[in-house]
Specification:
The protein has about 280 residues and is α/β, with parallel strands linked by helices. The protein is about 40% helix and about 20% strand. The strands form two sheets. It has a six-stranded parallel sheet, with helices on both faces. The model has no long low-confidence stretch (mean pLDDT about 95). The structure holds adenosine monophosphate. Adenosine monophosphate binds next to helix 2 and strand 5.
Length: about 280
């Protein structure tokens, strides 16, 4: 496995792979890797010949400077974890390398970027689109692997690929959870033991809600979930929405003939956790 910091070094290596007819699989991450990230790398290894993982904490997608500051950076440990995966190349550039000048591009995703994460993290998805489009441009992957954990991000990335006509296939990978059911996240490292135990209630409540769904209205299920989570002293719901998985419009009735996904953001102390469950 090779660690690369500079774009030209990366491109030289990748061109050599492509000249040999190898397909490139790409897993963009912000590091502080856990089994969720590694599952994407494993999937990339199954579907492509040469796997690139990027580790880059992208400043333009943080709407809260404190969150950016506190985001864990653990490159050494990340490299160690990647050693026993199909990852062949790690690209970990400096901020100045990715942004030699401010990126002024404004993407337009309409309603997709106005709801849920978009509503509470203004500018977040524009930052995601900026970095992912830059990375796609540099790496030129055949396939890129994203987790369903960040469901709305997945929808936005697919929309961006379509808008820009990028020749990359986006592969969605399932959410990896801790034994308690808590969705794995780099941010879980910032939870105390007690907070982490209580945060398991998020997934438990989503599962219960799915079970109750046929007997209660959508509105009743939504109310119940928020009440149940907020009744826990460690947790405070920011939003809970049940949406159509394609256009992210709210689902009004269970018999709406659309695929439904329930998406939630919850504060556990200062740490903001997101999760979702297909209904
Ligand atoms: P991040 O480093 O948080 O930007 O995440 C990098 C990629 O890993 C994104 O595509 C995430 O959706 C994915 N990811 C993060 N956590 C998980 C998880 N628990 N299960 C599956 N994929 C995940």
């Amino acid at each position: 496995m090779i660690l690369i910091r500079e774009i030209r070094d990366l491109q030289g290596l990748l061109q050599a792979q492509q000249a040999e007819g190898k397909t490139i699989g790409f897993v963009p991450t912000m590091g502080a890797l856990h089994s969720g990230h590694l599952s994407l790398v494993e999937q990339a290894g199954k579907q492509t010949d040469f796997v690139v993982v990027s580790i880059f904490v992208n400043p333009t997608q943080f709407n809260d400077p404190k969150d950016l500051d506190q985001y864990p950076r653990t490159l050494e440990a990340d490299l160690k974890l990647l050693e026993s995966t199909p990852c062949q190349l790690v690209f970990s550039p400096k901020v100045e390398t990715m942004y030699p000048e401010p990126d002024k591009r404004q993407f337009q995703f309409g309603e997709l970027e106005q709801v849920m994460e978009g509503q509470f993290r203004p500018g977040h998805f524009n930052g995601v689109a900026q970095i992912v489009s830059k990375l796609f441009e540099i790496v030129k992957p055949d396939k890129a692997f994203f987790g369903q954990k960040d469901f709305q991000q997945l929808v936005i990335v697919k929309a961006m690929v379509k808008q820009l006509n990028l020749p990359v296939e986006i592969i969605a990978c399932p959410i990896v959870r801790e034994a308690s059911g808590l969705a794995m996240s780099s941010r879980n490292e910032r939870l105390s033991k007690e907070q982490r135990e209580n945060a398991a209630l998020i997934y438990k409540t989503l599962c219960q809600a799915r079970n109750n769904a046929p007997d209660l209205s959508v509105e009743e299920v939504k109310r119940q979930v928020v009440e149940e989570i907020n009744a826990n002293a460690f947790l405070e719901t920011e939003y809970f929405e049940i949406v159509n998985d394609t256009d992210l419009k709210p689902v009004l009735r269970w018999d709406d003939p659309v695929n439904k996904v329930a998406c939630i953001a919850v504060f556990c102390g200062e740490v903001r956790l997101i999760d979702n469950l297909v209904f």
